[in-house]
Amino acid sequence: MASKPPASDPVQDAPQVAAPQQHAAGLPAVKHSLKMAREQMGVKRTALTLLRVNQKDGFDCPGCAWPEPEHRHAAEFCENGAKAVAEEATLRRVTPEFFAAHPVTDLATRSGYWLGQQGRLTHPMYLAEGGTHYEPVSWERAFDLIADELTALASPDEAVFYTSGRTSNEAAFLYQLFAREFGTNNLPDCSNMCHESSGSALTETIGIGKGSVLLEDLYKADLIIVAGQNPGTNHPRMLSALEKAKAGGAKIISVNPLPEAGLERFKNPQTPKGLTRGAALGDLFLQIRLGGDQALFRLLNKLILDTEGATDDAFIAEHTHGYEEFTKAARAADWDETLAATGLSRADIERTLEMVLASKRTVVCWAMGLTQHKHSVPTIREVVNFLLLRGNIGRPGAGVCPVRGHSNVQGDRTMGIFERPAPAFLDALEKEFGFAPPREHGFDVVRAIRALRDGQAKVFFAMGGNFVAASPDTDVTESAMRRARLTVHVSTKLNRSHTVTGARALILPTLGRTERDLQGSGEQFVTVEDSMGMVHASRGRLDPASRHLLSEPAIVARLARRVLGAESATPWEEFEKDYATVRDRISRVVPGFEDFNDKVAGPNGFALPHAPRDERRFPTATGKANFTAAPVEYPRVPEGRLLLQTLRSHDQYNTTIYGLDDRYRGITNGRRVVLVNADDARDLDLADGSYVDLVSEWEDGADGIERRAPGFRVVHYPTARGCAAAYYPETNVLVPLDATADTSNTPASKSVVVRLEQSRTD
Ligand SMILES: Nc1nc2c(c(=O)[nH]1)N[C@H]1C(S)=C(S)[C@@H](COP(=O)(O)OP(=O)(O)OC[C@H]3O[C@@H](n4cnc5c(=O)[nH]c(N)nc54)[C@H](O)[C@@H]3O)O[C@H]1N2
Ligand SMILES: Nc1nc2c(c(=O)[nH]1)N[C@H]1C(S)=C(S)[C@@H](COP(=O)(O)OP(=O)(O)OC[C@H]3O[C@@H](n4cnc5c(=O)[nH]c(N)nc54)[C@H](O)[C@@H]3O)O[C@H]1N2
Ligand SMILES: [Mo]
Fold first, then answer.
1. Quick check: CB of 233 below 6 Å from ligand 1?
2. What is the pLDDT of residues 585-629, one digit of tens each?
3. Which atom of ligand 2 is nearest to the CA of 654?
4. 327 alpha carbon – ligand 2 mean position (Å)
5. Beta strands in 474-620 (DSSP E)
């Protein structure tokens, strides 16, 4: 039997601390995933569901975007994928009776953990203006309500259409089509807070905002640098790929302020060996200061330039642009400044250089540790410089590997979920559908919050996600959301965003990945694109959580018909009935999807074209791969302050909290912890186990707002000097809305200057 959700809340947050673990996965991981799955789903459903994850006739794991290997194990999932599945396939339900028992003011006091633990949403629910409770509403009435608000707007640009990265290609394509037929490019997405910096840097330098390696390339690499990423928790199946690469002779360097489990030792639960000893994966650990990566890669580039015969001159001459200017900047790199910016030793960097020079095929993987800083775009450009110098883009075993988060975040962007669409994409839409799409750029996440705050946006519609909890500057974002006329969330589970509403609010419950999707023409499947540009089908088999659910494509199609009416020549009804007709349209609009329906029928799906990877062609403004030469930047932290990164624990999926433990880091039963280096703690007089408030300092309080997160237990932890770490979303309140990365506008949630004040105990 599955167990009941916790009755009480706030959940007691009483963190306990033990020594961090060095190894990841192994038997405890199997045990934990099965325990959580059984609690949510019961024994039989657990067995049925988990065996279908990532299988050829099954569904794509709703966890991360890591690709599927060609030879799959019977159990091709990881501990955290199992938790993501259990969270969705839970037997617990949030019914109209639940909403009748809990006024919105009550729900607004609950923790995100408690809300999520209540189960799956079963009915469309409506919160009327001035209402105290959500009440059940028919789908027809829900669409009428949305249509009334949308058509009353002075301009389509007063509506915002957000997307989180679980939405399928088919749903995403329809959603952007609807928004653009309605008349706006206001299509912010979770990518704006995630890999936007990667997209910005890569588009400019190599001409496509996606990674250039396939899984096979990792296996062929001599050297893999993993910078700013915690795969043991966030992409556990990547560890199997690293293990295989290592068996093939690859060396692995981890660049991180934290010694993350798994990069040191990994016990693969899918191999007998993994159940016992585990392998040491990392060959070198560079314990870098937050934000020091650009300086590190810049110095490495200088050292490569200074080494006779170390550059790939033929590649540089034939395929690149901007080399002269870049070498001038790189040769000026300074050892002392780099050591100060990175906190690394000279020996560390010399050892790294040896490994770099010994490698003929190098891959650099990264995630949020590189993308969520003010200078993230120049940092990633410097990584590209580093790879270009030795010809490491566009040949086997080498390349750029931004490791994506949400399971279809990359596909959503490919389908046109973007506030700044390329003119060629809009031209193709116009030709296929016969309407004139808007050409002005729309709002990204941060600009959407400002627009809501300033009354320029009045309707907020979310295709999944948890916007108010995931966004920065929680108090600012929440009051902005409360100014909306209408907020609408298409969701599987209850979350904070349902409790912080506009004047009126709707919750539209939808099918998840694991569930059967039956439409007029029969059972449907959807498609997704993984982090390496592989597109494949996903087919759920479970009975839907409730018979009142609609699929995401059906919700968009019905909304579009109701809002656009006879003016739209688009066959929305047909799209809802048969998703193959949506794929036909995609195949005529999006390059690389020609014959989509045929290609996706194969068991492994297909790879999208990638000009730099496939033919060393760089579709940039210059027609070449661009070297760039930005000034080196790194965060400067005033005396007595620390630089805080906000990151994930092992028991969460973004704002979805699975439990209160962070096993690998030795923390249990609580999330309000701040990890501080013991030497810094001594200087700041912060005893382990004492409680502090985190107060962020933003341009000397230029905007006059005090940002405080109270009551965090200090944990002495081996992080880099001067740096601290605490979990998101509890710390989003500290990230100022205006503190974003240059160019990409991604919130700088990995470099927040904070002071730690003893918590008042009264
Ligand atoms: N189980 C689980 N899986 C997930 C998610 C989840 O929440 N739970 N989230 C998904 C999503 S949307 C995403 S985007 C990914 C996120 O995957 P990650 O990027 O691994 O997630 P974070 O927890 O933010 O970890 C950031 C890592 O970068 C390091 N770091 C921080 N700042 C710096 C820096 O300045 N330099 C360097 N070199 N390192 C730094 C941190 O110490 C940490 O190891 O995971 C995806 N997968
Ligand atoms: N401070 C700080 N802030 C951050 C980050 C950070 O590292 N630090 N990371 C950022 C990153 S990388 C990201 S990607 C964002 C994440 O931002 P979001 O993607 O907006 O947030 P999630 O927590 O992933 O959304 C969870 C909700 O999605 C809904 N959901 C789940 N599955 C489905 C589905 O199949 N369909 C629909 N319609 N709904 C579904 C459920 O209702 C669930 O409550 O947060 C960002 N915010
Ligand atoms: Mo993400």
1. yes
2. 999 999 999 999 999 998 889 999 999 999 999 999 999 999 999
3. 23
4. 40
5. 486-491, 504-509, 517-519, 522-524, 526-529, 534-538, 606-607
The DSSP secondary structure of 437-474, one letter per residue, reads ---S----HHHHHHHHHTTS--EEEEESS-HHHHSSSH
Distance CA 363, CA 368 (A): 17
Q: Are 543 and 511 in contact (CB under 8 A)?
A: no
Instruction: Answer whether 490 contacts ligand 2 (Cβ < 6 A).
Output: yes
Say how many Å lie between the CA of residue 243 and the centre of ligand 1: 20
Provide Rg for the chain, Cα atoms: 25
Cβ of 288 closer than 6 Å to ligand 1, yes or no, is yes
In contact, 251 and 355? CB cutoff 8 Å: yes
Minimum CA distance residue for ligand 1 atom 18: 229
The pLDDT tens digits for 458-486 are 999 999 999 999 999 999 999 999 999 99
d(CA 58, CA 89): 14
The confidence band for 275, taking pLDDT boundaries of 50, 70 and 90, is very low
> Quick one: which ligand is closest to 655's CA?
2
Reply yes or no on whether the pLDDT at 653 is more than 50. Answer: yes
pLDDT in tens, 708-738: 999 999 999 999 999 999 999 999 999 999 9
pLDDT at 540 over 90: yes
Q: 232 CB contacts (<8 Å, ≥6 apart)?
A: 24, 25, 239, 260, 261, 262, 263, 266, 664
CA of 683 to the centre of ligand 1 (A): 28
CB 352 within 8 A of CB 300: yes
Q: Which residue has the tokens 């934000």?
A: 291
81 CA closest ligand 1 atom index = 1
696 lines ligand 2 (CB under 6 A): no
H or E stretch covering 642 = strand 642-647
Q: How many of the other CB atoms lie within 10 Å of CB of 708?
A: 14
Ligand nearest, relative to CA of residue 730 = 2
Ligand 1 atom nearest to 83, measured from its CA: 1
Q: Alpha-carbon distance 241 to 247, whole Å?
A: 10
The percent of residues in the chain predicted with pLDDT above 90, rounded, is 84
Q: Ligand 1 in contact with 260 (CB < 6 A)?
A: yes
| Assigned token pair, 672 | 């309000």
Greatest Cα-to-Cα distance within the chain, rounded to the nearest angstrom: 74
**C-alpha span between 596 and 576 (Å, rounded):** 18
Distance 55 CA to ligand 2 centre (A): 25
